[in-house]
Write a structure and sequence with these properties.
six-stranded mixed β-sheet; Aldehyde Dehydrogenase, Chain A, domain 1; alpha/beta; Aldehyde Dehydrogenase, Chain A, domain 2; binds glutaric acid; 2 domains; binds NADPH dihydro-nicotinamide-adenine-dinucleotide phosphate; oxidoreductase; Ald_DH_CS_GLU
Length: 487
């Protein structure tokens, strides 16, 4: 194996069920490859329906004592887990970069970002307050308590293999739930390493279970089980819709963090240097593979040429390569299929009249997983890049004339996750923030994610919020108790 770790015991290839590291029942494995080199780095147990059902039963059993622990005790254990994650930040970042590809500096950032959710929810665990409500009659009293929803299924993607899982497991455990997790088959090593540290922190056997492998079987077992009371998912809108359908048979609560089509609007009165800086981080972070990445850059006609020139200059400084090499700012895309998808979007735009200002030859898609950062100008709404999530380092730049036109273009999508705009006008800041149909708005800011804020979308970008003071609600049920005969 090619991952150099200070603590090699963090590298696990078995499933984690009821505190045991186990092979799959049929001994099958899936191969994990480094997208930078194509090299196989590990073979991980490929589990299916029976292992999932077993994990669900253990999780149910383990939850009985976990939820009874005083909130402060759960909080202390979560705090310990946070500390262990940060103590092992470098090893976790190495694992992440080798299996996912992102530059090592970004991987370190992701580990800290995920750990912040664990720290945050360790604190929030102690603040699950109820209510007393004025009753309709003098002899009655009404009290509301909040209780853990039950065993939670977490399904997470490959683009943030550490942080997406941390931000689901942490609130679930803080609320008193247990979890059965299915990380993406491309990137399970980061998830399994988190489990090693959870165990060391004292999280009891069965409270966290992690398995991957036979995706459809696992998905069906998780969604059809009456024991699982909630599914939290981050991934594509298509799979999210399928999972919502599957959850209908047992009426599960869902949190869905799905696709985006983020507009990034630059008004004539923007600080252009600030806007370019914001566009670079928002568009090219993780090689453009985030659901909050700027997807459509909309620039007002008065500053269009100036913005394009400045962005092209900034893009020239980005270097593409193996994420482990210092100085690399854009790693590989996750698979060759991802390369082909991104390339076909660029080709479609160019064939319909767009101009490729930066980027490599469009005649043939790259043979490996590296894609040169691209900028497209003269882009129009009939091109696929206007409607589809690009998930790659390609910036299509559209031109608009008026504020109303920009807002209409921005809202002309079934998605509603993140959006961004740049202006120095205070009235416009409020007007446009309120008019944009999105769950999150970055104003003169290209990076909006943090554990203190509610992350989530509207429309087909999903439901529920992760992080913030609202983030625990998704893992709690409200129970109302009516006491009578008290006169
Ligand atoms: N909103 C976001 O953050 C993300 C959006 N995407 C978008 O989706 C596109 C495709 O990416 P992709 O990786 O295929 O995303 P998916 O939505 O397919 O994968 C996300 C997670 O869902 C799992 N999954 C897939 N199908 C099922 C199923 N039937 N039952 C249960 N679990 C399932 C995957 O498992 P497995 O890995 O085994 O397939 C993975 O763990 C991207 O190009 C991007 O546009 C992708 C990732 C994240
Ligand atoms: O792309 C995603 O899956 C969402 C994570 C991005 C973030 O938290 O900023």
């Amino acid at each position: 194996m090619s991952i150099q770790l200070q603590d090699p015991s963090l590298l696990k290839t078995q499933a984690y069920i009821n505190g045991q590291w186990v092979e799959s029942d049929d001994n099958e494995t899936i191969q994990i490859t480094n997208p930078s080199t194509g090299e196989m780095i590990a073979e991980v147990a490929s589990c299916g329906e029976t292992e999932t059902n077993r994990a669900i039963e253990f999780a149910e059993e383990a939850m009985q004592s976990w939820k009874q622990k005083p909130a402060k005790e759960r909080a202390n254990i979560l705090r310990k887990w946070f500390e262990l994650v940060m103590e092992n930040q470098e090893d976790l970042a190495q694992i992440l970069t080798v299996e996912q590809g992102k530059p090592i500096a970004e991987a370190r950032g992701e580990i800290a970002y995920g750990a912040n959710y664990i720290e945050w929810f360790a604190e929030e665990a102690k603040r699950v307050y109820g209510d007393t409500i004025p009753a309709p009659a003098g002899d009655k009293r009404i009290v509301c308590i909040k209780q853990p929803i039950g065993v939670v299924a977490c399904i997470t993607p490959w683009n943030f293999p550490n942080a997406m899982l941390a931000r689901k497991i942490a609130p679930a455990l803080a609320a008193g739930c247990s979890v059965v997790c299915k990380p993406a088959n491309e990137t399970p090593l980061s998830a399994l390493a988190l489990a090693v540290l959870a165990e060391r922190a004292g999280i009891p056997a069965g409270v966290i279970n992690i398995l991957c492998g036979k995706t459809i079987e696992i998905g069906k077992a998780l969604t059809q089980s009456p024991i699982i009371r909630k599914l939290t998912f981050t991934g594509s809108t298509a799979v999210g819709k399928l999972l919502i359908q599957q959850c209908a048979s047992t009426v599960k609560k869902t949190t869905m963090e799905l696709g985006g089509n983020a507009p990034f609007i630059v008004f004539d009165d923007a600080d252009i240097d600030q806007a370019v800086q914001g566009a670079i981080v928002s568009k090219y972070r993780n090689a453009g593979q985030t659901c909050v990445c700027a997807n459509r850059i909309l620039v007002q006609e008065g500053v269009y040429d100036q913005f394009v020139a400045a962005l092209a200059k900034a893009v020239e400084t980005l270097s593409v390569g193996d994420g482990l090499k210092e100085g690399v700012s854009i790693g590989p895309l996750i698979t060759k299929t991802a390369i082909d998808n991104v390339h076909s979007l660029v080709k479609d735009a160019v064939e319909k009249g767009a101009n490729l200002v930066a980027g490599s030859d469009i005649e043939t898609a790259p043979e490996d997983c590296f894609y040169q950062p691209a900028i497209l100008t003269d882009v129009s709404e009939d091109m696929r890049v206007f409607r589809e999530e690009i998930f790659g380092p390609v910036a299509p730049i559209f031109k608009f004339s008026t504020e109303d036109e920009a807002v209409a273009m921005a809202n002309d999508t079934e998605f509603g996750l993140a959006c961004y705009f740049y202006t120095q006008n205070l009235g416009r800041i409020w007007r446009v923030s309120e008019a944009l149909e999105y769950g999150m708005v970055g104003v003169n800011e290209g990076i909006i994610s943090n554990e203190m804020a509610p992350f989530g979308g509207v429309k087909e970008s999903g439901n529920g919020r992760e992080g913030s003071k609202y983030g625990l609600d998704d893992y709690l049920e409200i129970k109302y108790i009516c006491m009578g005969g008290l006169a």
